[in-house]
Amino acid sequence: MTITLHADVENGDTSRENLKEPFIDNTSKNVNNSEATDPNASIKMALFSTAVAVCGSTEFGACVGFSAPAQAAICNDLDLSVAEYSLFGSIITIGAMIGAVTSGRIADTVGRKGAMALSSVICIAGWLAIYEAMGSVLLDTGRFFTGYGIGIFTFVVPVYIAEISPKELRGGLTTLNQFMIVTGSSISFLLGTVVSWRTLALTTGLAPCILLIAGLFFIPESPRWLANAGRKVEFEQALRKLRGPKANIDAEANEIHESILTLHRLPDATLLDLFEPEYIKPVMISVGLMICQQSGGINGIGFYASETFQFAGLKSAKTGTIAYALIQIPITIVGMVLIDKAGRRILLLISTCGTCFGCFVTGTAFFFKNQGILLEWVPFLAASGVLMFIAWFSVGMGAIPWLIMSEIFPLHIKGVAGSLACIVNWMGAWVVSYSFNFLVNWNPAGTFWLFSGFGIFNLIFVAKCVPETKGKSLEEIQASL
Hints:
Helices cover about 75% and strands about 0% of the residues. The chain is mainly alpha-helical. Residues about 1-40 have low confidence and may be disordered.
């Protein structure tokens, strides 16, 4: 199958029109070439635009976090078997795979803002279907639609943030995407312990979409997308709005212009182009990181956390679920603070070690339970292992693979390679989320030890293959690879 070129994450690959004239007239009266950029003006609109975009990330988190606190109630109300609920929990990843495949083309055709608006509408339709469901068919249909919507969000939100951000803030602002995913998931976990699953669908599901649609009226479109579409006047207006009316945008505008001219001289990329020797390394890095993220077990552990706590013998599964929700937010903030200081690679190494150890501890707890050893310690060890896992995952492995995906690809293969990486990620998410319940029922200790074993291979991959991209412009990263 050939995948056509989708969105260029940093340089807005849409139409292939020739752009020969500079976007910014250096003699413009509105620009003082000797004036330095006002840092406060530079970040206010970028921060606000990011805040609006990450409502889509919150929706992402609400969708994936919904299944854990709602599992027991949905199974009881609709009389679902383990297999039926596993299908409901995992079908979101099927929708997300399809959404990821089409996201680039949608974002290229209607723009980043248009793609986010469309995704919001699809998610709203999915949540209303879940709310009205009286059986598995409508329930699964709604879950599929929310999956399709967040599949688009998976691609377009980090793309939009990366394209509007000043380079010195790009890492932190892009990881805000992961922070809001965690926040959305945590809200679902917490609220799901006190309200019905139907109420949960209407509140945590619909609110982020409504806020996002409202916010889109006040933020600019991606300047890179506008530039590549040949919309010169709107490009300048958007860039000035993002950088401030007194900012000198000549250098940035010309850099964007030159990169787009380079892009337009290159041929459209297909899936087969990814196997050419000069592109193997960045594709291997991005796809490999997506496999690392999913093979650690995050979607199985996250989707069914409450059942895991209950199976371990914790007196209150809700207590474990609340702890799981609360621990993600502060740890993700730590990762956001460190990512542009410590660097991407070191955080990935630390995160991988921590998730590996957390799964090993949980697996050991279940082994003790099966062998009748230290039974009074089993619930504590199992809960501690799961909480360690999610804490260390939130430090790095949750956000950084998506950030590196938005940084590392050469210009003319970025769209098709990014789509491939998203497909691999969601395919892994489906395998883990669908099989998790069956694996745990078969051998809980072996399941978590399996995830721990994958963590060792993931650690070797990061140490050997993943480069550091901290402090480099997008053009510098692309040139180095």
